[in-house]
User: Fold these one by one.
Assistant:
Number 1:
Amino acid sequence: MNGSARGRRRGDLMRLLAPVTIFLGIFFLAPLSILFVYAFLEPGLYGGVSWNFYHQNFGRILGWADGVYEEYDPVYIQIFLRSVRLALTTVFGCLIICYPAALWVSRLPDRWKSFCIFLITLPFFASLVVRLFAWMLILKPSGWINETLLALSLITEPFDMLFTEGAVIVGMIYVLIPFMFLPLYASLEKLDRSLIEASSDLGANRLKTFLRVTLPLSLPGIIGGSIIVFIPSLGNFVVPDLLGGAKVLMIGNLIEQQFLMARNWPFGSALAMIVLAAVLIFLLIYVSVVTRSEDTRGQQGV
């Protein structure tokens, strides 16, 4: 390829990337920069800010508040750790549900694969709020689950399922299942079948073939889906608000309250920065694991 052709190709690439770059620069990086600056500003009166450097916003969360103007309260760390726990539980639940389904769909004939993927994405055609209100009708004390169990005399009084951590986990798994299924399916669908046949020819049974061939090769899809599910789970506030009520407060709800009710934008920005830092740490772990996995596969000639 000569220099002029290479230059034209680079120019075409820049023109193609320019709209996306400009869009992300305006609508992603700019608001993120504002949040970063606000996280280090002093809260002002009536929801405003004073343009003074103020690290006490993080001190309220992480423990070095001065005790005069700001008080350290461990409840913020507890809410953050609860959010991490619920997000990880959601990831695990989605993985348990989606992996067998994605493996089964990847082995179907092509004409059925498209139909199954359409079914997986079908919930996106309905409003998220409407779907969550439907779950409220299902889980409430007079919902059809409790009514059925009472009618069968399996219970004497309704289960308290709504406004619990279990309801929040069920809601988030329901909402985020497509985000786990699609990366898993993409990873399993491109799996080289000759490797599975070779494993069988060498005497490995189905379980051993799955553990030694299928599972390691689908690891990028597992990690990718886990990251994609974990990020919106950690900062989710719609599902906890509707299915958890005031009993299950997550970090997303706390950030929403600081911006909309307490009108403490600097403290809300500090909370958002901590969530962002946690997400970045998990992304770095993902990139590290995927890179190591690809290097290992490259050395093994897979």
Number 2:
Amino acid sequence: MRAEPKAQEASVGAPPDSIEGQIEAWRAYLSKGGAVSSPDAEELEDHLREQIERLRSKGLSPDEAFLVAVKRIGAIDAITREYAREHSERLWKQLVLSGNGSNRSGSSASEESRSTWVALTLAFAAAAAMKAPALFGIEFSMDEAFYPLNATFLVFPFVAAYFAWERGLPRLRSIELAGALVAAALLVNAFPFSDAPGAQTRFLTVIHLPIALWLFVGVAYVGGGWSSSGRRMDFIRFTGELFIYFVLIALGGGVLIALVIGLFQAIGVEAEPFVESWLAPCGAAGAAVIASWLVEAKQSVIENIAPVLARIFAPLFTLMLLAFIATMAWTGQGIDVGREILIAFDLLLVVVFGLLLYSVSARDPLASPGLLDWIHLTLVVSALLLDALALWAIGARISDFGFTANRVAALGLNLVLLVNLARSALVYVGFLRGTVAFSQLWEWQTSYLQVFVIWAAIVAFAFPVLFRFS
């Protein structure tokens, strides 16, 4: 475990070449134009000073420690990365932005090597944890209820542990996170879920549990500074990048599995049992840790893919929603109130929310309104209209067939999305009219993440009790 942060007061008016002068320049850049609030800047400064102090204790000079510390802060803060880019004429840019250059310092290479080995160790530990239940007779290919419910507890702790080590999370906060995960695992495994046909609460817990518990990974990722909106936005970016890396690894893993099965079939050996019981589950668990490490280590190679994809697909989804609404108006056909259709609608609205979120994360908060902002506003308004129609359809289904866990969960999710989209539309209109800063939309989205987490936690932990585990 790394050292705990130690905040110091900045020396105002320090010589520009001194370390205090460099920190002052960095702090002034962060506060420029109000892109980062004063409390957030103070948190980042505390984190920067902590990194500098730790690096100096390892023998680095003040300048070297400042450069490496800015590089690390830049991994979790976009403004710091921009600061590095804008000061490209300075020598330290090579140290800050180049993760693989031949001119990097020995200490930086050593840190990266250590980070790699830590990630590999945790990946193997996650893979081993996935098979640990087999020691108690719970086989992956035989128990259809245990692994879907507990997969989160077998993977997330190792991803959180990597970031707790990487960020130097305070020991007390690490213990709190571990205790919360253990308590959550004991609670859901103590629930007497019904196995009767049509039982819904186990499935709802399975799909909402990862959303609720992803917050713990987020706290570790931001080094405990969850109150900082800038760090929460960086965690949003990380989540999108992690998803893309994981999908790429999964595609490669799929090819590997197909080759393994094909090769061993050629010599009369059935490899499917090994693939189903070992290769697939252990590989998926380890891949989650490796993908997290890749997002951190290879940002200079593939940076901000998720926001870029969001900016590409936002106009396409806008056209699709407009075409759908126009077709509904032309034909007079309402939304089918069938469960599958409503689930598809909810997935569509969640995707639209994700597109908006990552588009916001990729936008320069100080740039003037442009065409893409109008497209985003149209996307939000279109999604808002569809969400209202979906809510009407869900209400009709509840009126006809009564309350069930599935219907109440869908109703709650649509209400959560409705509030988010409505507020986003109002802020976007204000921004386009020049009366509201774009940072308010940033603040709104990062703050609202907690509403999604709370709702997911309610469905995962309270719904089984409220609906008597049916």
